[in-house]
Amino acid sequence: MSSRAEFLQNKLDALLTIANHNEQKQTHFQEYELSLLNSSGLFELLSILLESHQVQFQLTEVALVLLDPEYEFQRLLDSYEIPNAWQNRLLFADSEQALHQDYKIPYRPRLSEYIPQQHQALFSNNNTLRSVAILPLIRQHKIIGSLNLGSRQVDRFQSGIGTQFLQHLTAVISACLENARLQESIKQLGLLDPLTAINNRRFFDQRVIEETSLAQRNNTPLSCLFIDLDHFKSINDQYGHQAGDNVLKQAAKIFTDIMRTSDILARYGGEEFVILLTNTPLQTAYDIAERIRKIIAAHDFKISSSQSLSITLSIGIAVLDESKRINTSQQLIKAADEAVYDAKLNGRNRVHHAI
Fold first, then answer.
1. CATH of 39-189 given 3.40.50.300, 3.30.450.40, 3.40.50.11310, 3.30.360.10
2. Of residues 184, 210, 271, 272, which has the active-site annotation?
């Protein structure tokens, strides 16, 4: 083979190697894009962005900032246990101004060296970065957040290199985030009571099974408070159903304010509410129930602009305990329901616990 032919053959081999490498990269990206599009919900999508993305693209750090002025994303995530690995990597901005001023998010993708004064707020978990890509997420011509990538390699992200690919990636991510937000909102609407805006019975029936299993696995106490507003029918009969609705909404607000972040509140039906107290023994549950009872009894419930009334409630308590008769979620609810019935038979405005 002549030197000219050998030169051309070597050049062709090099081009084929590059083409093969690019094809592999394209296939890899398409698989990643499909995982984004096929994610089952907001939590899985965030897991892909904050965990899988870092591994698949061999990045030192990944951070995500979401514009969340109405705390919608944060409320949607309340029902999930957020991994420790997401701490300081999943960030929320309460205004577009905060995106630009606090996190220094540009309107266009910016690939550059890592500059602590500009990028520290985004990558507070890591001080070894040398180059970064700050990628604004745009949906319907409005910024909704930013995906931020960091590398220890100084030449990993350079201005003007790979920008078109990254713009396509962020367009896909922006669409997926918006769809996940809408799907999660619709799903949660089906699990919320429309009157009081707290969880409904369907939600509670799902969670009580999960919490019962968790309590048994960890050998921790799980208490259930079954709450029934006393003489509620007479409120509807005497003042009308709108007055009754106002009472229910105010009662739900009081329960919500008293609850701990780990507790689970739901409207069970009509004037009945239920609260699951995780990792809570009987005496603590009783103290919480007594506090609820006293606050409700002392509260003036406004039923119109000029009229208010007082109400009381009865509470039944049951505690999951495998050594006794309560060792399933159904038995827990049944025992708490029977306990509140006993409280009513014994004069109302009191707390009873299942024996």
1. 3.30.450.40
2. 271
